[in-house]
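Researcher: Please predict.
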Amino acid sequence: MNVAKGFFFLLALFTAMGARAEYPDRPIWIIVPFAAGSGTDVIARATGAALSRRTGVPVVIENTVGADGSVGTAKVAKAPPDGYTLLATSNPFTLVPNMRKSRTYDPVKDFVAVAQVAVIPLALVTSGKSTFKTFDDLVTYMRQNPGRTRYATTGKGTLSHLEVEVMTRHLKVQAQDQPYKSPEDALAAVANNKAEFFMANLPAAQAQLDSGALKAFAVTSGARLPQAPGVPTLAETIRRPGYEASVWFGLVAPAKTPFQVLTRLEDEIEREIDVPAVSERIQSIGGRAAFLRSAPFGGQIRFENAKWGEAAKVLQQ
């Protein structure tokens, strides 16, 4: 009797396993917490199309905008952890919740990383007419004139503001942030000597760098860039080995999403990342394909969450 019961139990188990559909068997939704046409949106659509090709199911892109990305992000945090609702995101994912008094999500506890897809390096630029010939000249001036150096930003709490705050505090110098409405306005202000420097997306500044209206003192990538081999990394200039700060783009999922689902997603993205349909879309916004699997991408998210948490404490003093 016990043998018969065991047989029927195993039969039922294997039947249930066989009936269970392999992931994915229905449409996947990628929530983009920023507007259509944004860098995150462009990369999400390219990645979504690639996943659809690889999995054979539709991948639907939904723009859920508001509160610097927090509305769409919080929506995904509450979604079922089954791999059918993903979040396309970038640096504000870790930055925004640390700069606000109340959080609508926790980037570490509420999510698990799927994969990083692309990066855009930053560049510390100054006017082509500036009297500063090197980064050390700029640092010397800041030391000799505390608080008088103006640096352009695209607003309080943005990457262009906070990365400079981290840099100046590391160097023990002071500078005054000067916000502008857009990156274009900030670049124009620096080119016309209305601000001494700006931490800009390198592709946005490239035309003015090529024309000589701007010059770059440093790039924030981990290594010197092939298109600008003479420009040192910020890690070199501030003498902080390993320091890196780029705009990144990737996918995350609700916490407790099954490991096998994450593995399927990251495998398919890795297979498609260098396909022209994907890489050319990334290049169209000035980025480059930079794939990271779930584990290292998750480590990067944890590092940045801690980094901005510490920065917020310092800024609030």
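Model: Residues 10-19 have pLDDT under 50 and may be disordered.
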